[in-house]
């Protein structure tokens, strides 16, 4: 039944590609996968295959890939993506010898892919569980691992109609929490180790490598900054009116979607609330145009790749997505030792729950709850400092997952 479902999914994806640019990119990319494998991987190569669904999972696997490349150059690293949003951004990633799409999980595709790639080790990151790939790799004798995986009672594997067979194909699963380990044990899967999330190691690496941003420094000056990262419309409708009444703070907005229409929507909302706006790329082209007085002004970061460094200038951060798709990268902000705010769709994100429990992050559901949180921070420097310390301490105390996984997978548990 699974394989029939994959064939139906493949057919639907081909039809959808006629109408969706994103799906069309994936279909075209899959068509190039086998050519790339034949061209770049020789029969004599020793291959380690990392598979990530998209960018978030890629960041979780990145510490392992980069350490592997440095310490074991005898291996060739193959990186695959499922999502075009991940592949398009990282298709030229220098930490891998080859980056391509994973083909649909049909028996024929699986046979051809594994024949050309012939990996010694395969690492699937977080939620990637492809039955035909996993079964074939296991039968072939390839060592197969799951990294940063997390399991919940309501996942389909554990329903009456579900199938846990894919999970039994792993040689070992490195899970994020004890609850995941317990669920798997209840279903007869004991080859597990609780290590935490490798993404925490990655955000620490990013923080340590972050470069100064003179434009942000000049814009912020000595004023406290509120950083709205990966924000969406529903978030912006809540926090922008608040800062219209608190112009002694500087507002920096890094929207998740950087389209001209969304940027204009933000600028319109700012103007309606009496807040001027500047675009980062405009100031980047002419640094001298940063005004001396930036009170009552918002800086819109209309480019990619800056947010992880911008958080360092914040007193408080917001991570968007909590009113729709789910919150984005909370640890990326928390690593700087600042409290993080987010919307209500955060239940499936372990770090968000842990940070809420320790007092390093806070959930808002509307304008009133947002104002309550921010009013407290503005009126009590002690409360602000305590929340920021809780956030930073959580990240640092839970780091080390990547090292544990690397030693177990590539150094025999040393």
Keywords:
single chain, alpha/beta, 14 strands
The first-to-last residue Cα distance is 41 Å
How would a textbook summarize the main sheet? 7 strands, parallel
Order of neighbouring strands in the sheet with most strands: 3-2-1-4-5-6-7
User: Unreliable segments (pLDDT under 50, ≥5 consecutive)?
Assistant: none
Note the total helix count: 18
What is the beta-strand fraction?
Answer: 15-25%
Structural class: alpha/beta
Describe the structure.
The chain has 414 residues and is an alpha/beta fold. It has helices at residues 2-16, 21-40, 55-71, 84-90, 107-117, 131-140, 178-186, 198-209, 214-220, 233-243, 260-272, 280-285, 307-310, 330-334, 350-358, 367-379, 381-397, 401-410; strands at residues 46-52, 75-81, 98-101, 119-125, 143-149, 172-175, 192-194, 225-231, 250-255, 276-279, 297-300, 316-319, 340-342, 361-363. The protein has a seven-stranded parallel β-sheet with strand order 3-2-1-4-5-6-7, sandwiched between helices. A seven-stranded parallel β-sheet has the order 10-11-9-8-12-13-14, sandwiched between helices. Helix 7 links the parallel strand 6 (172-175) and strand 7 (192-194). The chain is globular, with a radius of gyration of 23 Å.
């Amino acid at each position: 039944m699974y394989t029939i479902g994959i064939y139906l999914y493949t057919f639907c994806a081909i039809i959808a590609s006629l109408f969706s640019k994103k799906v069309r990119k994936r279909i075209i990319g899959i068509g190039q996968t086998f050519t790339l494998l034949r061209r770049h991987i020789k029969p004599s190569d020793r291959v380690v295959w990392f598979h990530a669904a998209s960018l978030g999972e890629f960041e979780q696997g990145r510490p392992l890939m980069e350490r592997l490349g440095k310490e074991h150059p005898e291996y060739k690293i193959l990186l695959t993506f499922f999502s075009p949003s991940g592949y398009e951004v990282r298709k030229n990633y220098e930490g891998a010898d080859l980056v391509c799409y994973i083909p649909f999980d049909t028996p024929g595709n699986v046979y051809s892919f594994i024949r050309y790639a012939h990996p010694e080790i395969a690492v699937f990151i977080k939620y990637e569980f492809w039955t035909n790939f996993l079964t074939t790799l296991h039968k072939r004798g390839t060592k197969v691992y799951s990294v940063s995986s997390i399991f919940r009672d309501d996942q389909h594997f554990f329903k009456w109609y579900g199938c846990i067979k894919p999970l039994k194909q792993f040689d070992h699963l490195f899970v994020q929490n004890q609850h995941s380990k317990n669920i798997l044990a209840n279903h007869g899967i004991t080859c597990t180790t609780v290590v935490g999330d490798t993404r925490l190691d990655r955000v620490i690496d990013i923080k340590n490598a972050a470069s100064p941003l003179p434009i942000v420094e000049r814009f912020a000056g000595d004023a406290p900054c509120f950083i709205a990262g990966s924000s969406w419309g529903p978030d912006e409708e809540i926090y922008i009116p608040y800062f219209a009444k608190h112009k002694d703070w500087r507002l920096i907005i890094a929207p998740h979607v950087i389209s001209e229409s969304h940027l204009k929507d933000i600028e319109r909302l700012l103007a309606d609330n009496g807040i001027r706006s500047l675009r980062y790329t405009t100031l980047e082209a002419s640094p001298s145009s940063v005004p001396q007085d930036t009170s009552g002004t918002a800086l819109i970061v209309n480019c990619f790749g800056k947010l992880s460094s911008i958080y360092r200038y914040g007193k408080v951060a917001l991570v968007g997505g909590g009113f729709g798709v789910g919150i984005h990268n909370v640890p990326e902000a928390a690593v700087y030792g600042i409290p993080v705010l987010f919307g209500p769709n955060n239940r499936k994100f372990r770090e968000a729950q842990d940070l809420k429990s320790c007092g390093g992050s806070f959930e808002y559901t509307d304008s009133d709850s947002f104002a309550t949180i921010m009013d407290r921070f503005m009126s009590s420097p002690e409360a602000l400092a305590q929340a920021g310390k809780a956030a930073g301490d959580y990240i640092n105390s839970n780091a080390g997952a990547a090292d544990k996984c690397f030693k177990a997978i590539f150094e025999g548990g040393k």
